[in-house]
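testing teh design pipeline on a random one, pls ignore if ur not involved
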């Protein structure tokens, strides 16, 4: 009997640990704010977009199912001031429509098919709003919200992050002027510095630390000394992008925390 009790206790403990560490598909209501966030891992660039249409709910759900530790997505504003998930300033590349997002209303964008160009099996997939995308994200993965718009749109995004109690996991990736506007309105929202200054990595690192940003997103590695400075300042390091598992390993060894990839299943 004592042996059975010990085994049962160990099984319960293991299950709790696994539940804390493994992202599981679900809406916000299925998670608590105490969910443990990963220390490092793979970031799903626009969701899982090698098979699924980028920046759509199917792509985000698949990224969560595969176990991505961070999910990157892009936000832009429509003509009628609605926030939608779209990387480009136009709808041309990823939908069956044409035109600037800023010149289309949400209703017009809703009529577009955001899946058919990827594969006929995704026909009928809609461009999601920011809130719709946020609602399918579990609370134990990092949310890399890349602003493709101005200060006003970023403050709108920050407000939703606060209202939805996602400040522990969501950060806004943006340039300096946008970050300043967000911090003035909602100082509790995390920032990823995207003001890269071309190839001046040293300046990029220095200003990220000086501005007390929570994340930096490198396009090429900084020096080991600069990496240590970032670590000492408690700045988490993203790297964009690679499709190679071997390169991912090298980046982690160099101190990168999260690597943005498209080939999610290959790199996880």
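output:
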């Amino acid at each position: 009997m004592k042996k059975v009790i010990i085994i049962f206790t160990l099984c319960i403990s293991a299950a709790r640990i696994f539940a804390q560490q493994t992202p599981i598909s679900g809406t916000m209501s299925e998670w608590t704010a105490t969910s443990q966030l990963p220390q490092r891992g793979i970031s799903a660039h626009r969701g899982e977009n090698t098979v699924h249409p980028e920046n759509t709910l199917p792509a985000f759900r698949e990224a969560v199912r595969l176990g991505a530790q961070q999910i990157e997505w892009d936000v832009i504003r429509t003509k009628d001031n609605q926030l939608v998930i779209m990387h480009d300033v136009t709808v041309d590349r990823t939908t069956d429509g044409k035109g600037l997002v800023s010149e289309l209303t949400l209703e017009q964008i809703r009529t577009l098919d955001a899946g058919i160009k990827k594969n006929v099996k995704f026909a009928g997939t809609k461009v999601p709003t920011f809130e719709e995308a946020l609602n399918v994200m579990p609370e134990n993965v990092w949310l890399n919200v890349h602003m493709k718009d101005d200060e006003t749109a970023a403050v709108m995004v920050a407000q939703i992050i606060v209202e939805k109690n996602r400040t522990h996991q969501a950060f806004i990736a943006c340039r300096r002027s946008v970050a300043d506007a967000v911090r003035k309105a909602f100082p509790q929202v995390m920032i990823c510095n995207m003001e890269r200054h071309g190839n001046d990595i040293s300046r990029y690192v220095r200003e990220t630390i000086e501005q007390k940003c929570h994340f930096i997103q490198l396009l090429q590695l900084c020096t080991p000394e600069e990496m240590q400075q970032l670590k000492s300042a408690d700045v988490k390091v993203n790297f964009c992008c690679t499709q190679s598992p071997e390169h991912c390993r090298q980046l982690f060894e160099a101190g990168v925390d999260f690597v943005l990839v498209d080939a999610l299943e290959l790199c996880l």
